[in-house]
Amino acid sequence: MWPPGWVWKGYERARPASPCVSARPAPAPTTDSAATRARLDRPAPDLIDAFQRTVDEGTVRLTRTWPSLLATGVVGGADVSLGVFAMYLVRRDTGNADLAALAFSIGFIALTLANSELFTENFLVPVAAVVARNASVGKLIKLWLGTFAANLAGAWVVTGLVMAGFSDLKPVAIQVAAHAAHQPLNDRTLANMVLAGAIITLMTWMERSTESVPAKIVAAVAAAFVLAAGPMGHVIVVSVEMFGAFHAGVAYPYVAWLGWVGLALIGNMAGGLGLVTLLRLLQVGKGVLKEEQEREPLEPREEPAEGTA
Fold it and tell me: How would CATH label the architecture of 44-294?
């Protein structure tokens, strides 16, 4: 005899379903599954590391004293001016604009290895720190204004020394600056300036994405070459070139230069902040941003547990 309630169905035994038993509800999501989704939503660990390094460096930049801020800006302008000096030399000796643009990268290599700083490099690093709530917008504006003025001061001094010591470079300096001096301030020029801001900010992000010095140098050389070969409307680089022409004796009105600088500031900031910084912050995601906002500035981070990165 089969046990009560069992019926023979071929080679299987099956208990008839009881009408009093309802279908079992689907299990509610567990904490483990929620944690799994959170891990899957996180960006790649390398991207998180790059963002964290960016936030930490931006916090340091925003807490500098005035002397430190201005000194860093002056040497940044001086470094770029040395790159323009190298560009003058190669263009004088070869007449090749592309080789001269490659020589210009010496200035950006100096920026990278000597921890100097350009105004346009601050479209990403300190902005990330402000978004992480490690500093105020007021400190960001202080950094922008101080670095911009110091870059121009350093560039003015070094280009004056170059023209005083190498008078045979004056015709080259005038030729190099001609593209900006005679360029109309129209929509095409603005588009060029937007791209210039995006290029320098992308270089900044690439350098924060690696701890390899050779990789940082590659990023610096690539960005410098494109800026100089374009030539692109980068507010500091072109100001350095125009300062060289001023010291060479060109009677170009400073008011016209200020008008060019004003448009370049708008274009560079639109390209750097809009095309790079904003998109990189979106790429990092809300979760990582929230973690940084809840962490004390420069507080050591916990190492992620095995398999949770």
Answer: Up-down Bundle (1.20)
Q: Is the peptide bond before 231 cis (omega within 30 degrees of 0)?
A: yes
Segments of the chain scoring below 70 in pLDDT:
1-41, 302-309
- Under 8 Å between Cβ of 307 and 32: no
Nearest to 263 by CA among 290, 233, 285, 284: 233
pLDDT value of residue 298: 73
Q: pLDDT tens, 158-217?
A: 999 999 999 999 999 999 998 887 888 889 999 999 999 999 999 999 999 999 999 999
Q: What is the pLDDT of residue 193?
A: 96
d(CA 128, CA 16): 65
How far apart (Å, rounded) are the C-alpha atoms in residues 145 and 96?
36
Q: How far apart are CA 114 and CA 130, in angstroms?
A: 25
Q: What is the pLDDT of residue 11?
A: 44
DSSP category for residue 5: T
Pairing of strands 12-14, 7-9: antiparallel
Residue 37 φ then ψ, to 5°: -65, -40
CB 104 within 8 A of CB 225: yes
Enumerate the domain spans of the chain: 44-294
Tell me the three state secondary structure of residue 309: coil
Nearest-10 Cα torsion for 194, 195, 200, 206: 130
